[in-house]
Amino acid sequence: MSQLPKQPAEVSVPTSADVARLAGVSRATVSYVLNNNATVRISDPTRRRVREAALQLGYVPHAAARSLRAGHSRMVLLPSGHIPGGPLHQYFFEELQSGLRRLDYTVVQYGSVGLTADEAATAWAELRPVAVVVPPGITLTPHGTGILTRSGAKAVITLGPDPVPGAHGLVMDQRRVGESAVEHLVAHGRRHIGVVMPQEPCRESFSETRLAGARRAAESAGARVCPLPLGYEEESAQRLAARWGELGLDAVFAYNDEYAMLLMRALQDAGVAVPADTAVIGADDSLIGRLLRPRLSTVRMELAMPQPLAETIDRMVQHPGGPPVHHDLLRTSAVHRESS
């Protein structure tokens, strides 16, 4: 008769009582130290002894139990989806997450692809986060905001270009990007301006908003804007460049530096001189754009906040119930180089 393999003995999970015994302190002291409770005076040697005992035993506080004791979690939920990447957004999310960790929050990313707006809000609410930060490209409705606040979220924050009723707004208005690009081109004598519209679905929310800003700037200057669908591939850029003469354009805002480089190479290969025949400007101020010949003009984007983002969110959590607040984060400026 074959024998089943011997099962390993059940692993004993260390508890706060084990840490207290090893450190020679009470369980309350262990809780105060490991939960970073600053309201109780505990000497530095005692704090070190508790942390060393916890490390030696491999003790990890139980997040759910801590949430029950506190009445809420320390979880900040960051939904993820098809969010257009870029240096500014990468910096934004890195700063946000590291800042929240320093304030003793746990940042959890949640995949929301395939869910409707209200289905996503319900799924987020099931985790009982203390705050939800909704990035651009992910839809939050007023109904979804209500679901989250009723489930215990003390702060619901959107990062899109337009505020959502009932939610705080950290607004990164992409219209400013298109506006700055077209204002720059108009100032250099261009009046017939193409605006590249990436055909990647994940970029649609950004590209449509940047187009709206470009149109606003063009209208006030008496210029013309022409949307230009473009796939992120050489063949698509070559097809667009081949019919450039019939479009009658003297400038192009190419959505970002990557698309600008893609299109500029195709235009040059098709015999279109940059900037003599067509001025080109991108966005993001990437290093590689400065290495091109001609050097690429661009729109530089910066975040403008009166205090660190994590501290702003912490204040919203600490003082819930007030009216929604909105901060306009995005500052843009055109950088003139040789391509325009």
UniProtKB/TrEMBL annotation:
<dbReference type="InterPro" id="IPR046335">
    <property type="entry name" value="LacI/GalR-like_sensor"/>
</dbReference>
<dbReference type="InterPro" id="IPR000843">
    <property type="entry name" value="HTH_LacI"/>
</dbReference>
<keyword id="KW-0805">Transcription regulation</keyword>
<protein>
    <submittedName>
        <fullName>LacI family transcriptional regulator</fullName>
    </submittedName>
</protein>
<keyword id="KW-0238">DNA-binding</keyword>
<keyword id="KW-0804">Transcription</keyword>
<dbReference type="InterPro" id="IPR010982">
    <property type="entry name" value="Lambda_DNA-bd_dom_sf"/>
</dbReference>
<dbReference type="Pfam" id="PF13377">
    <property type="entry name" value="Peripla_BP_3"/>
</dbReference>
<dbReference type="Pfam" id="PF00356">
    <property type="entry name" value="LacI"/>
</dbReference>
<feature type="domain" description="HTH lacI-type">
    <location>
        <begin position="14"/>
        <end position="70"/>
    </location>
</feature>
<dbReference type="InterPro" id="IPR028082">
    <property type="entry name" value="Peripla_BP_I"/>
</dbReference>
